[in-house]
Amino acid sequence: MNQMRPPPKIEIIPPTAPFSEAQRSWLNGFFAGLLSTDGPASLSAGQGGTPLQGPIGDGDDGEAPWHDQTMPMADRMKLAEGRPLRRRMMAAMAQQDCGQCGYNCNDYSNAIAGKAETRLNLCVPGGKETARMLKALNEELEKAPPASSGKIAAPVVAAAIATEPGRSRDNPVPATFVSRRLLNKPGSEKETWHIDFDLSGCGLDYVVGDSFGIFARNDLGHVDQVIALLGASHTADIRGTPLREVLVDDVSLAPAPDTLFELLSFITGGAQREKARALAQGEDPDGDAATLDVMAALQKFSGVRPHPEAFVEALEPLQPRLYSISSSHNATPGRLSLTVDCVRYVVGKRQRLGLASTFLAERIKPGDQVEVYVQKAHGFALPQDPRRPIIMIGPGTGIAPFRAFLLERKATGAPGKNWLFFGHQRSSCDFFYADELNAMKTSGLLTRLSLAWSRDGDKKFYVQDRMREVGREIWTWLAEGASVYVCGDAKRMAKDVERALVDIVAQFGARSTDEAVAFVGELKKRGRFQQDVY
Ligand SMILES: Cc1cc2nc3c(=O)[nH]c(=O)nc-3n(C[C@H](O)[C@H](O)[C@H](O)COP(=O)(O)OP(=O)(O)OC[C@H]3O[C@@H](n4cnc5c(N)ncnc54)[C@H](O)[C@@H]3O)c2cc1C
Ligand SMILES: NC(=O)c1ccc[n+]([C@@H]2O[C@H](COP(=O)([O-])OP(=O)(O)OC[C@H]3O[C@@H](n4cnc5c(N)ncnc54)[C@H](OP(=O)(O)O)[C@@H]3O)[C@@H](O)[C@H]2O)c1
């Protein structure tokens, strides 16, 4: 028989508040009702700070104290010491649950440990550091007796790998690129594009909160420079495909992988060989390791010319990139929009191009087909109850899913109140979708619009500073049952915003910091504090 357990008790009115026991009890009950769960049905364990995986037979308690995207690798591994391999593998990942690998961190590690996934290089935010640690842990796994690797992962993996066309990175479909429009005005230091796709040809749909996976292609000019450094012909045959095509479509030319340095060490000698070998082992003999993309590596070892075939084999496959969808399929069926910040930066004398963002910003033409897929959101969705208020905090490109939320709530006539916190560098040139948002405000769809411009004044002013100014009202919305959403930069912004929310709960909910942390933790567990950060 299914025994129902009572929901965990939330003490909303602290014992120190000036109420009698009876009053406190009544008030607690009243607010607990308002604070009831209304997370999306898809809310998965592992998102939003909940324990990631219950005990599954290997003695682990399922807690993941390392699950913090701002924690350095060494600290994460320390916290995972003595745990089963699958848990240490999880600790080696970047902890963003960003979905780029096709899983969340917990499921990806279970899949590797259960030997259902052999690719150890899928954690994009973890980069080479994660790939190296996973390689070392995987070697341990290979040596371990079969019982300790376990059959744990199979059901998780079966669920994680969507086989339907266009529903996973393993099964992309072609969509048509329609147009791009620059969202910044002259004077901006940023280059952010509104991008439109037509999905009618591939028949894909999506719900707001989902992300869009893009398989971009390398820049042809860059590829030709790499071919020149190899001293090869661009038609050199690589198992039936011309070298140029393989370098454009199939392999990453970004961070030079350890395997490329291994290859370079094999085909050279002396000091060059030592250097290449050191780089292959993650050392940094000249202090430039972090800047060595494939081209810079070839330039560094300029006399060394690998055979094109061996060279291609030493490179990593080109990985897709995810973008939060900024449109609503209900509002514009068959259409999909993204909000993409273009990554360009200079190292030495050469400008480096972000692969997918510059592909979307300048390399594809209207009418071109791009390989894409929809990455279903886990734990990032509008509340099931359309009356529930929402507070959305999305500086920069973090606005993307919130534009989608607002368009969805408009299209479906959802009556809940909507409050958006948007911030960027300058009000004059970085106010994305200003006309749309102002119109939504005028129409009443957007109940409140709070803005924070970091470079308009003498001092930095961020969304969390604006939140603190209106903390009392945020607390009132929370008490009315509002769900809180954060989207954008994972490394600093998301943490700072969460801290501000904790402070607001402490100040206006009359709690100690510990109680406020627990309160926000409870909101997460109930799906009322959700993040989509990268
Ligand atoms: C779930 C999810 C949703 C996302 N949504 C969005 C979105 O809505 N909009 C958006 O714009 N992005 C979004 N991203 C980020 C996006 O996926 C890409 O990571 C981003 O566009 C960069 O990809 P790229 O291929 O252009 O650059 P890459 O080729 O991947 O290059 C980026 C890398 O370059 C390096 N780099 C960047 N700048 C510098 C610098 N100044 N100095 C030195 N090194 C540097 C860093 O190592 C960085 O990781 C999202 C990510 C995830 C996981
Ligand atoms: N590696 C990094 O250090 C870093 C930092 C930011 C963004 N990114 C990445 O850059 C990409 C696109 O960024 P974006 O276009 O969305 O804009 P963004 O660069 O994230 O900036 C958006 C706004 O957020 C502000 N901001 C900076 N630090 C903040 C913090 N700790 N808390 C709150 N706000 C903060 C920025 O101010 P100022 O710029 O004036 O400080 C700016 O006004 C994303 O992929 C993001 O992850 C990387």
Bound ligands, each once: flavin-adenine dinucleotide, NADP nicotinamide-adenine-dinucleotide phosphate
- The unreliable regions are 1-10, 39-55, 153-161
**Count of helices?**
20
Structural class: alpha/beta
Strand order of the largest sheet: 6-3-10-1-2-7
Key terms for this structure?
binds NADP nicotinamide-adenine-dinucleotide phosphate; six-stranded antiparallel sheet; alpha/beta; binds flavin-adenine dinucleotide; five-stranded parallel sheet; 534 residues
Explain this structure.
It is a single chain. With 534 residues, the protein is an alpha/beta fold. The chain has helices at 21-34, 73-79, 85-92, 105-113, 127-143, 146-149, 154-160, 220-230, 243-249, 258-266, 270-280, 294-300, 308-314, 355-363, 400-411, 434-443, 463-469, 471-479, 493-508, 513-525, and strands at residues 173-182, 192-198, 211-215, 237-238, 241-242, 321-324, 335-341, 344-347, 350-353, 369-375, 390-393, 418-424, 448-453, 483-488, 529-533. α17 (463-469) packs parallel to α19 (493-508) and α19 packs across α20.
